[in-house]
Amino acid sequence: MAEITTTTRLRLPAGPHDAELDRTGQVFGRLERLLHVRLRAIDRGTVAEGEPATRNAVKTDFCARHGITARH
């Protein structure tokens, strides 16, 4: 059975929500980059002392530290 993926783009009128959406995007963009830096440190074997040393542990710790869920 073939899977189909679709995307919907909403064209909302400009409004006060734009600034909040921009800030939210910036926050989650920074968090995503930080997570990838920590995961890359594991790949390179350069994990800082006291930091989680497995990919799963990093993700779990990261979510707890930043108060987000894995779906964020």
Basic shape:
extended
Give the radius of gyration. Answer: 17 Å
Q: Total helix count?
A: 2
Mean pLDDT: 90
Class from secondary-structure proportions: mainly alpha
Largest sheet: none
Layout: helices, strands, pairs:
Layout: H1 17-44, H2 55-66
Helix pairs in contact: 1-2
Keywords:
single chain, 72 residues, mainly alpha, 2 helices
Q: Could you characterize what this model shows?
A:
The chain has 72 residues and is mostly helical. It has a domain at 19-66. Helices cover 56% and strands 0% of the residues. The longest helix has 28 residues, at 17-44. The protein is extended, with a radius of gyration of 17 Å. The protein starts with 16 loop residues before the first helix and ends in a 6-residue tail after the last helix.
Quick overview of this protein structure:
The protein has a domain at 19-66.
